[in-house]
């Protein structure tokens, strides 16, 4: 590292290094730590909800606090836990899988992270300033536009800021994958995780702007007196629902597709076989991404769109089950006849298949528009989306973390503890959510803070709460594993799993330029191709030479900090216009940093050949 | 490529904006960004169309809009798009001063447009008491057209900053992509205006 900071040492220098880093591997760590933290916050909120619903007529949480809890649980889990943890994996892995030295826009990569970070912090500050948002993660108007206090304002500003970060990250990965692939890495040789990152990024690009607009309209209505959702002045509350779900349904695929990709890589590695039906898998991923934009109104069957619209959206929704089915079968056939190693990563992946399939099945049930009038807004829906989100996304994150941990940190997470974490989580998961389908069919509505005694709902809810505690135990064991591994586990080499793809061709953790020489890719599963040819590693595609690397910068942090300050200004200027000062200061910092970025040349730096040769002697870079 | 080759290239390639990997990335990334912007404006247009009739009284589109001013604004902005094409043409021929000149003209035309828009808004507010808050239609109108106006303002500041920053040193492989994507942005703004002109003003007056 030739930035000035890295030559200094000590605690402050480390902090400064992380504040200014543009290295995708360090940004991956930042996403991991922050996303992990918010995952715990969202988890505690979930536990509080389940404790409240443990028995009938409970008064553990007040009605108002309960509403805040469900809203913040959903919002936190989707935007502040699942998305950043996915970005952690993408940042750690995708550039390595395509043989690149960094992402296309390292500066924007850092900006994306800090925007997400400050958006998330802003949202959670609401707990301490008079109440969190309480209109559900879907924030439907007019519930949201009439919600008293500033909770919903925090929702609007927090998501707007972190959403901007997500959009930036999406564009970054798109360009990275199009422009930065190593020689020979054609599209149809890209590992499935890279493919799914590509499709996901496209979904982000086309879905998030709808949320941006929705949030702007909500902001204008709540903070500047406009009338988009004010029926008395001709407004229309359904506009919010459309904008939200035009974003919201693609969002569920933004969450699941990258993990579909991770599972594909994991199944193939631990079955010691190439992925079954590679091109069908790619095709299915693209098709799911495309269809994901055609189905948003299945969340609005009961709004009264009419039978024609409902039927079209119902059929389109059911169609998504087809490419998803293709994937399920291909994963099974990948394992079929393979030399299966039941590592912790593989355990989570195998468990994902039946769990997610149940969620897909209830999804098709929900897609039957006529039947949805019965299911809608009941615990059946809660059961459905947790089967896909926990059984798919959360299982996938655990699997992906186990699989790529050695690449990120140079150590394998302890396998025994890994499996010990899996079992209570897996059993607890089904205990919690399976019964919720039946609670829903029995008429228990979602988002009610109490249920009544004597309606046959007691046992089911108690079982559900017990399951939640088991999941908490599993999570705690996983955390213990991280600490244990950091202190007790030995270092491993670059390729601990006998891997097939490019990331396993370089040391763990990789040097900050990743590849001393860009590799030449000669087929699908490029490292495996070389291994089958009896070679030790990749053949380089270029002679050893100087490497160009980007410079670190504090500007992304400053830009995001400015937005954070301005966010408070926007929220509180309704109470007193002197808060507009915060808007001006904040926007001044942001725009000033943008101007600095635009005007000041930043050409990066070079790592010299001699330095690389020294690294290679020490065993790196190959 | 060494830093010196980027800042003081001995020979300018034909497409200086795409000569470096950074330039290629910027070029592609910006196209993607414009894809996202398209969804943004599509959402705003959708909202506008949904609230088009919600005028709550006198201030309907037919009553408010005057096509004369809007025609002048359209001409200003369309011309500015053309002048920015000239600027890019001179960039490809490595004629830096002519490029700067055409960009200055672009900025002046853009300022003319922005001036007209501010005048138009003031006119509606003071003559008709038609504001952001008076009806859902008012909110939708000012939001859609105002978002576009905000883009114009941002584009003008951006191009101006580039003109001033590089006036002394001329074109190189580092700033060529910056100029190029700024001009892409400017075209995009122009295209959005064509839709606003049609959907808001023409359809409002005639439709
Ligand atoms: C792939 C991962 C999936 C995720 C992450 C997901 C997520 C969700 C979420 C969060 C909701 C709740 C909306 C609310 O707040 O009311 C939901 C509802 C719904 N899901 Fe899924 N889903 C997935 C897959 C599917 C599939 C495969 C189908 C159908 C084939 C489906 C069909 C539906 C329908 C129709 C609803 C609306 C239910 C209602 O509101 O009454 N989902 N989904
Ligand atoms: Cu959906």
Q: In words, what does this structure look like?
A:
The complex is a heterodimer of chains A (622) and B (207). Chain A is mainly α and 622 residues long. Chain A has one domain: Cytochrome C Oxidase, Chain A (Up-down Bundle), CATH 1.20.210. Chain A contains 19 helices and two strands. Chain B is an all-alpha fold and 207 residues long. The mean pLDDT of chain B is 94. In chain B, 77% of the residues lie in helices and 0% in strands. Chain B is elongated, with a radius of gyration of 20 Å. At the A-B interface, helix 6, helix 7, helix 8 and helix 18 of A face helix 1, helix 2 and helix 6 of B. The structure holds protoporphyrin IX containing FE (HEM) and copper (II) ion. Copper (II) ion (CU) binds at residues 249, 252, 298-299 of chain A.
Q: Structural class of the helices, strands and pairings of chain A?
A: mainly alpha
Query: Helicity of chain A, in percent?
Result: 55-70%
Query: How many DSSP helices of chain A?
Result: 19
Task: Determine the structural class of chain B based on helices, strands and strand pairing.
Answer: mainly alpha
| Cα shape of chain A | globular
| Run of helices and strands of chain B | HHHHHHH
What can be said about this structure in brief?
With 622 residues, chain A is mostly helical. In chain A, 66% of the residues lie in helices and 1% in strands. In chain A, helix 4 runs parallel beside helix 13 (379-409).
């Amino acid at each position: 590292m030739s930035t000035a900071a890295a030559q200094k040492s000590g605690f402050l220098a480390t902090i400064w290094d992380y504040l200014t880093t543009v290295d995708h591997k360090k940004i991956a760590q930042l996403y991991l730590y922050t996303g992990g933290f918010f995952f715990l916050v969202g988890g505690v909120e979930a536990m509080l909800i389940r404790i409240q619903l443990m028995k009938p007529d409970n008064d553990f949480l007040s009605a108002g606090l309960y509403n805040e809890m469900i809203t913040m649980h959903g919002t936190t889990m989707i935007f502040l836990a699942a998305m950043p943890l996915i970005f952690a994996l993408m940042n750690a892995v995708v550039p390595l899988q395509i043989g690149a030295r960094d992402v296309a826009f390292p500066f924007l990569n850092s900006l994306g992270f800090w925007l997400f970070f400050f958006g998330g912090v802003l949202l959670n500050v609401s707990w301490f300033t008079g109440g969190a948002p309480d209109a559900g993660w879907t924030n439907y108007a007019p519930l949201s536009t009439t919600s008293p206090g500033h909770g919903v304002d925090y929702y609007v500003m927090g998501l707007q800021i972190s959403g901007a970060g997500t959009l930036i990250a999406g564009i970054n990965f798109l360009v990275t994958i199009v422009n930065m692939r190593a020689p020979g890495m054609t599209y149809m040789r890209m590992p499935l995780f890279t493919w799914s990152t590509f499709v996901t990024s496209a979904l982000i690009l086309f879905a998030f702007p709808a949320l941006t607009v929705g949030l702007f309209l909500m902001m204008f209505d709540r903070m500047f007196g406009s009338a988009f959702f004010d029926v008395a002045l001709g407004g229309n509350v359904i506009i919010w629902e459309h904008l939200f779900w035009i974003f919201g349904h693609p969002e569920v695929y933004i969450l699941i597709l990258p993990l579909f990709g991770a599972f594909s890589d994991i199944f193939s590695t631990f079955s010691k076989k190439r992925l079954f039906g590679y091109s069908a898998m790619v095709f299915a991923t693209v098709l799911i991404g495309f269809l994901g934009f055609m189905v948003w109104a299945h969340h609005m069957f009961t709004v009264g769109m009419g039978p024609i619209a409902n039927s079209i959206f119902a059929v389109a929704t059911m169609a998504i089950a087809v490419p998803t089915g293709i994937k399920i079968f291909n994963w099974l056939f990948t394992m079929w006849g393979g030399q299966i190693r039941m590592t912790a990563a593989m355990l989570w992946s195998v468990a994902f298949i039946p769990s997610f399939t149940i969620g897909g099945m209830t999804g098709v049930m929900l897609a039957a528009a006529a039947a949805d009038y019965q299911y809608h807004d009941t615990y059946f829906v809660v059961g459905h989306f947790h089967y896909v989100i926990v059984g798919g996304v959360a299982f996938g994150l655990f699997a992906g973390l186990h699989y790529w941990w050695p690449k990120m940190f140079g150590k394998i997470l302890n396998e025994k503890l890994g499996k010990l974490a899996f079992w209570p989580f897996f059993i607890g998961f089904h205990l919690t959510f399976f019964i919720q389908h039946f609670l829903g069919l029995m008429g228990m509505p979602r988002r009610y803070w109490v249920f009544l005694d004597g309606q046959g709902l007691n046992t089911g809810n108690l079982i559900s709460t017990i399951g939640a505690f088991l999941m908490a135990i599993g999570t705690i064991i996983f955390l213990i594993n991280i600490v244990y591994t950091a202190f007790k586990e030995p270092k491993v080499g670059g390729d601990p799993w006998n891997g097939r793809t490019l990331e396993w061709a370089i040391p763990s953790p990789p040097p900050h330029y990743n590849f001393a020489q860009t590799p030449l890719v000669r087929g699908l599963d490029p490292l495996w191709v070389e291994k089958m040819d009896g070679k030790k590693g990749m053949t380089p595609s270029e002679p050893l030479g100087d490497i160009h690397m980007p410079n670190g910068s504090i500007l992304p942090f400053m830009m995001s900090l400015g937005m954070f300050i301005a966010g408070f200004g926007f929220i509180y200027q309704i109470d007193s216009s002197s808060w507009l000062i915060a808007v001006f200061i904040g926007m001044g910092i942001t725009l000033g940093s943008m101007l600095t970025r635009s005007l000041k040349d930043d050409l990066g730096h070079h790592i010299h050949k001699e330095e690389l040769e020294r690294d290679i002697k020490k065993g790196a870079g190959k | 490529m060494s830093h010196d080759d980027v800042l003081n290239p001995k020979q300018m390639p034909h497409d200086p904006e795409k000569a470096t990997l950074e330039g290629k990335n910027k070029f592609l990334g910006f196209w993607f960004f414009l894809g996202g912007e398209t969804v943004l404006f599509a959402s705003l247009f959708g909202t506008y169309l949904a609230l088009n009739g919600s005028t709550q009284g006198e201030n309907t589109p037919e009553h408010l809009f005057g096509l004369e001013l809007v025609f002048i604004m359209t001409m200003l902005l369309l011309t500015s798009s053309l002048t920015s094409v000239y600027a890019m043409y001179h960039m490809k021929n490595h004629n830096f001063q002519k490029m700067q000149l055409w960009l200055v003209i672009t900025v002046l035309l853009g300022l003319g447009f922005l001036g007209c828009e501010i005048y138009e808004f003031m006119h509606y507010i003071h003559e008709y008491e038609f504001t952001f808050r008076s009806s859902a239609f008012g909110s939708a109108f000012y939001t859609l057209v105002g978002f576009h106006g905000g883009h114009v303002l941002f584009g003008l500041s951006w191009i101006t900053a580039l003109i001033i920053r590089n006036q002394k040193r001329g074109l190189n492989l580092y700033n060529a992509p910056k100029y190029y994507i700024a001009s892409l942005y400017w075209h995009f703004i122009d295209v959005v205006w064509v839709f606003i002109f049609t959907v808001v003003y023409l359809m409002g007056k005639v439709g």
